[in-house]
């Protein structure tokens, strides 16, 4: 007495790039592509960009704010305040 394979998707020997459905008794006409192998995602670039954003953008906004504060006080203070908001936003994104 031979055991039959359980119903499910199998890779047929005739076409190893697809899957075919076995209903438990026979092959059906249903085909599906093989799932593409997932590439390992590296988040090192995102982390580096986050750290750069966390430090450089607020520093740049602070410098611009201080320069503008001498020429246009309202605009300078706005930029100075935005530097802190920017630092907070990046910190939340990084450490969430």
TrEMBL record:
Keywords for the protein's UniProt record, in alphabetical order: Membrane, Transmembrane, Transmembrane helix
Pfam family, one: DUF2510
Regions that span the bilayer: 46-68, 74-95
InterPro entries found in the cross-reference section: DUF2510
Boundaries of every DUF2510 domain copy: 7-39
Protein's name according to its UniProt entry: DUF2510 domain-containing protein
């Amino acid at each position: 007495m031979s055991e039959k394979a359980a119903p499910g998707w199998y890779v047929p020997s005739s076409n190893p790039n697809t899957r075919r459905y076995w209903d438990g008794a026979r092959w059906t006409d249903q085909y599906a592509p093989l799932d593409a192998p997932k590439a390992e995602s590296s988040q090192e670039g995102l982390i580096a960009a986050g750290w750069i954003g966390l430090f450089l953008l607020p520093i740049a906004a602070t410098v611009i704010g201080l320069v503008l504060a001498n020429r246009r006080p309202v605009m300078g203070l706005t930029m100075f305040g935005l530097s802190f908001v920017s630092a907070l936003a990046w910190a939340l994104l990084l450490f969430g």
